[in-house]
Specification:
alpha/beta; Rossmann fold; globular
């Protein structure tokens, strides 16, 4: 394995825009949920006339779909990701809207057949219900409770509220309170293994809400401890949790 300083410097230079994780190939692995979200979304996109994808990142998941509806809109709140999505999806006629989490969706009432999201920041349930046409569907893969806490707790203390957050039961109740009918919830717990300190640094840059204020100098003691462990052949092991949530606006 290459020296600590070299691995960290490489991870600090690496691009972290978008929602692709190819940089981790050979350095980290993660089991995938059994339902195959990208495949499910592609199938639904081929069946509807209009769709909205929330918190699209760089548009990677939507971009995998062979067929897109004639009217496809995506939202993204981080400008580098939004620009990446425009580059990827603009040539396919997709409109990219700069919408920060919590902002109203700049779409008319009852204007889309499908709202989708992979790992939305905070699902705006009232807005989702508003823009869906009667009979329209919400299809999303959410981050579940306690996701990657074994890694996060190496750096910061997790609060009781964070431990309760992202519950599929809570989010289902919130969806129903906004007038949606929840038709399916599936959950998965997926093992992740991280094999070098560069992968740790890159992940914490990619997902800055995991360890707010993460800094390689401030957190050097923890990073070097993890580095020493991984050099013995023992990966850092954590588990991501996911839930598939389908809901619809009653006709």
């Amino acid at each position: 394995m290459r020296p600590y300083d070299e691995l960290v410097a490489e991870a600090l230079r690496a691009d972290v825009t978008g929602w692709g994780f190819g940089w981790l190939d050979g350095r980290a692995t993660e089991e995938r949920p059994p339902w195959g979200y990208a495949r499910l979304l592609a199938a639904r996109l081929a069946e509807v006339d209009s769709a909205l994808d929330l918190d699209t990142g760089g548009g990677e998941v939507v971009g995998e779909a062979p067929v897109l509806p004639a009217h496809t809109v995506v939202t993204e709140g981080w400008p580098p990701n939004a620009e990446r999505a425009r580059t990827l999806l603009g040539q396919r006629g997709v409109q990219v809207l700069d919408v920060a989490p919590g902002d109203p969706l700049p779409l008319p009432d009852a204007s889309v057949d499908l709202v989708s999201a992979r790992h939305p920041v905070r699902p705006p349930w009232a807005e989702i219900s508003r823009v869906l046409r009667p009979g329209g569907e919400y299809l999303a893969q959410h981050v579940g409770p306690g996701s990657m806490f074994a890694l996060i707790e190496e750096f910061v203390e997790v609060t009781p509220e964070q431990r309760r957050g992202r519950s599929p039961e809570r989010e289902s109740a919130e969806a129903e309170s906004a007038g949606l009918e929840v038709v399916e919830v599936r959950t998965a717990r997926c093992r992740a293994e991280i094999h070098d300190v560069g992968a740790v640094v890159w992940l914490l840059r990619k997902c800055p809400w995991w360890v707010p204020g993460f800094d390689v100098e401030r957190d050097e003691e923890v990073l070097r401890r993890l580095d020493a462990r991984m050099r013995t052949g023992t990966p850092v092991v954590a588990h991501s949790t996911r839930h598939l949530l389908r809901a619809r606006r009653p006709a």
